[in-house]
Structure formats: C-alpha cells, structure tokens
Design brief:
Blueprint (H helix, E strand, L loop, with lengths): L12 H12 L15 H15 L9 H27 L2 E6 L2 E6 L2 H19 L8 H21 L3 H7 L1
Antiparallel strand pairs: 1-2
Helix pairs in contact: 1-5, 2-3, 3-4
Length: 167
Amino acid sequence: MATQARHRRTGTASSAVASFQAATSKHPWPTVAVTPSADPQVHARELEVFHTLLAGRAFDDWRPSDLTVAARMAGALVMLDNEYIKLNAEGAVLPIGGKTGTQPVRNPRLDAINALSSIASTCNRALGLHGDPRDKRDLFRAQQAETKARGVIARAGRDPLLHDLLA
C-alpha cells in the first residue's frame, strides 16, 4: 500500500522554526551520483543553477533521487547556455568550403542544443517543477512560510540586532 508524504504543518511555532532552518539550509551537490564539472567556474554556475532549481520547492520536499535529477538538470542547463553562446557567435548556418565554392550547412551545434533541451525537459517533468500532484494548498503554504523566512533572514543581515538573534 502506497503511503503519502507527510505535509509540514503551518501556523505553529515549530513550523515557523522549521521554516527558518530550511530557509538557511542548502542541499549539497550529490557527488556520489553526479560528477561535478572539472572546471571550477563551470561548476560554480552548475551550483548556482542547482540551488535556483531547489528553491522551487520547500527544503524538506527534496528526496535524494530528486537532488540527483536536479543536479543533472543544472549541468544540462549550464551546457545548454554555453552552446547557445557559441551558436550565437557562429550562426545557425555555416559556410563550408569545397572545390566548387562554399555551401551553406546547418550548424551541428543545433543537434547538441536539441539534445540538451530534451534532457532539461525530461528532468523538469521528472522533478515535477511544473506542478506537483500533491495538495497544492499545503505546498503553497509551506513554500510561502519558507519564502517569508528567507525575507526575514535577508533583512536580519542588514540589522545587527536581528542578525545576532538569529545566529
């Protein structure tokens, strides 16, 4: 018999504390399942995209398998961005020279862009970032509480008294 995931209660003191803890927590890159890019600058971009994707759900809603898919999606999106930059510099049609002159040829980089777009779309569907089958009201409340906590934490960084209180 399938069990449903427990929903985080909102409106209680313990849920407010949990929201603050979740707002300051970040899931690590799942290095066991997804090898990070060897280039530190590329990996920094992967991490940035990874954490942006994770902000789409409450902290506690991420399972380890979801983190793996999110890391793969982040890697694909960074590579996709790099391919788009190169495509914009080269153009969609390349002049290829031969004995009789140049012929316009479709840029093979378009195939890589299509493949990476497909990977990103598949990951998006697998993660359900476009919508979750669970009760949307509960998800909305949990996400709203976490967003509110992030705002308080951001303001606390500018107020030394609050910063010391939350530290």
